[in-house]
Design a protein that fits this description.
The protein is mainly alpha-helical and 322 residues long. It has 2 domains: 136 residues, Four Helix Bundle (Hemerythrin (Met), subunit A) (Up-down Bundle); 136 residues. It contains 11 helices and 2 strands. It has a two-stranded antiparallel sheet with strand order 1-2. The longest helix has 37 residues.
């Protein structure tokens, strides 16, 4: 772990000096030790208890993942590392605690993370293109498309590796320096700190649900439809980080994940359609568009059923009432 013990709030939600196990950001549970003492602050200032357990662990996990990927990671290795999901978990938690940072500093800290997540996503889309185009040509992709795919992959490989090297060599350290130093707390009572901390996270869940209502889940335009999918993704990222705090119903979370996968299937087809169209493969693009429209239609049908089920209201109730 890279966490500096002096950055922890001197309060354990459990027993004094207890070991706190598990963070959703860990692939394997790890121990976080929060010491207990009469002193309120260490030299670096305190950290919210849940922030210490979750955000800091996510940052450590991201740093470990970046180091494990080495200097020239291949697309398959990037996909298996789940680096994009780890960045999203960091983003969801920092936005829940955004009032604990200077607004401009937080923007500076998050920009390299957003760029990394976006580029890693583009890198991952290489496998999406292969899978979707093979659905049109199961017996083998034509030579002209294969050649263009190879050129595109080489371009994306170079783009990702350059940004990854920049992130690893300097941007990561600059971002983490900000994210690991939130403002000191005003509260002095550990119980009040814990309550306020919980409210921050529950409010973040509520805001994401309101955003889903605002953005909407029914759009004929694929790009607007994708915006709806992104709000679902952000809500899932927050739920992943708070499922050990709020008592979400298993069936609600499963329904949300199922809907998100349906939206993802449509988005994968839209990625392939856009690439085929932009590269002049009109016949294949038209076929892929027909696939995408059907997948989008099915996803929106399931979205209506999902919203009627009351699962979103149930998720919000779990976050607000524990």
């Amino acid at each position: 772990m890279y966490i500096n013990q002096e950055q922890f709030l001197i309060f354990s939600p459990k027993l004094p000096g207890s070991n706190l196990r598990n963070s959703s950001c860990d692939k394997e549970p790890s121990d976080l030790y929060i010491p207990s003492t009469d002193k309120r602050y260490y030299s670096e200032g305190p950290v919210y208890p849940m922030l210490a357990k979750k955000l800091f662990t996510c940052l450590d996990n991201l740093e470990n993942t970046v180091n494990q990927l080495g200097n020239n990671p291949v697309p398959e290795k990037v996909k298996d590392s789940e680096i994009r999901n780890i960045v999203r978990w960091v983003q969801s938690l920092t936005m829940a605690y955004k009032d604990s940072y200077d607004e401009e500093d937080l923007k500076k800290a998050l920009k390299p993370l957003k760029n990394l997540a976006f580029t890693a996503g583009s890198y991952k889309d290489l496998t999406v293109l292969d899978e979707q185009i093979k659905s049109i040509y199961p017996k083998g992709i034509p030579i002209n498309i294969t050649k263009k795919l190879k050129e595109y992959k080489e371009e994306k490989n170079k783009e990702f590796r350059e940004l990854f090297a920049q992130f690893k060599s300097g941007d990561m350290e600059k971002s983490f320096k900000i994210l690991r130093k939130p403002f000191p707390l005003e509260e002095t009572n550990p119980g009040e700190i814990q309550k306020k901390d919980g409210r921050k996270l529950s409010n973040a869940v509520e805001k994401l649900i309101k955003k889903i209502d605002k953005v909407g889940l029914y759009h004929d335009d694929p790009e607007e439809f994708h915006d709806g999918r992104k709000t679902l993704r952000n809500l899932i990222a927050m739920i992943v980080q708070t499922d050990d705090i709020f008592s979400y119903k298993k069936e609600d979370v499963e329904a949300l994940n199922h809907l998100f996968k349906k939206y993802g299937k449509s988005q994968d087809m839209n990625i392939a359609h856009s690439w085929l169209r932009e590269n002049g493969f009109k016949k294949e693009a038209d076929i892929m568009m027909s696939y995408q429209k059907e997948a989008q239609k099915n996803a929106m049908k399931e979205a209506k059923e999902f919203l009627k089920s009351g699962a979103l209201d149930s998720i919000k109730h779990s976050a607000l009432h524990g």
